Predict the 3D structure of the following.
Amino acid sequence: MAQRPGFPARMDWSPHDTRIPKNIANSRDQIKATGRKDVKSGLTPAAQGHGLDSQAVRARMVRKLAEQGIAHPDLMAALGAVERHRFVDSALVNQAYEDTSLPIGLGQTISKPGVVARMIELLLQGHEEGQIRAGRVLEVGTGCGYQAAVLGRLAREVYSIERLRGLHDKARQNLRPFRLPNVHLLFGDGTQGYAKGAPYAGIIAAAGGNAVPQAWIDQLAVGGRIVAPMETASGQQALVVMDKLERGLKRSVLEAVHFVPLKSGIA
Ligand code: SAH
């Protein structure tokens, strides 16, 4: 049987322990509660211990992703840095670094790390070195905000749109401690894209429809790439990559995937 990651079993902290709040890096209350803070890191000794433990579990997650073929160094660094356990419900924290999707409320799920990594790697591969770094990315389906945080470490600007108010608010809360000024959360229907941020070097969707919306194609820069789950001719959902070339669109259909549906309108 596969060994389960040690997180958070190795920690002297549990998400149910009310003495230490969940948003450790941002927690003034904790500093009040537990005393001294380290001048350099701004964290209390307990929080530092927590950070180190979760970093080791993340490093293991990244090693496993590397075994699955993920190789982009910047992406691996971003996945190693973003604390995925901060994006899931406290009852699910011990599964945060397993390669599994998890419920995030309102019937939606955070995609499994392997899928997030695969899609972002596809997005990066479609570009000349540095194009995403220097450009804007649109994410459709913010969900809990995890993928937006990873993208925020890779692209100059990230616009992430969510149609469910409850999740948009949750993502805002989740992302606050990360202080990513280049990640812009929007509440709206992502099938319309977000014209104000266009043109995009990349568009990535976390929900699957039956066609790539025309707005995404219009808002994509020439040389840009869309990575999205879509229903294919066989009725199955698969990852679709679309490149906007000078002379038109190039579409490739890759492996089968299972994403929540892309829906119109807001709720
Ligand atoms: N990237 C997210 C995954 C969330 S699941 C994460 O890291 O957690 C996909 C999300 O897409 C859901 O929250 C769903 O509400 C949202 N969604 C579906 N259709 C949408 C649309 N038309 N516009 C914006 N968001 C949409």
